[in-house]
Design a protein that fits this description.
216 residues, alpha+beta, 6-stranded antiparallel β-sheet, 6 strands
Length: 216
Amino acid sequence: MVGDLERRLVELRFIEGIEKVEHVPYRTGDQFWVRFNSPLDLGKLENLVNKHGYIMVRFATLPSKLPRGLSEMLWDGVTHVIAKKMSGWSKFTSSLGLEPEGIAKIVDDLHGQYQIFMATTEEGVQLLYEYLGLKYVPPAPPPVVPAKPLVPAANKPVPAVPRPAAPVPPVTAKPPTPSQPSQPAPSQPGPTQQSGTVPKPTIAAADGPKKETTTS
């Protein structure tokens, strides 16, 4: 990926030898294109490439030799690819037109007479700045968003869950108990009454009316 594209568009727009600077977005990542108005010094560029541990290989040597009309249909103008160390087989397939994954590539402008340097990664941009003799400044790191402090959740009162009432047993009617006849309580014997004897009624001792005695 390439960073700080807007800043670099301003930095390189008016450099001598540069005709146009473009930011070209792709699904696989943004690219930084610099169109030159004079031929590139491929020897100088290759020395810088080797200094950083990369190689610059020829690309599409066979399709580029076809007639212009046919070559434009099969070839997109890429002449060199700057990539990491590659095997001999990868170099052979790149000459046939199978583009390896790299950090930059050089393209012949099919509508002009000079080349376009296409940086596909930040390392490719660094090579371009060194080739132009400019100070390379890495892109600014993305701003760090401070993490929000964790706020403890308020303890909400838990609603009381009513317990299910115990089942009430069904009321069964009891059969009525037979009432016993009430008996009078036995009378207690009096002070003058002896057990086993029946008291006799008291009768006044007189056969007739009591005579009154008068004195003359």
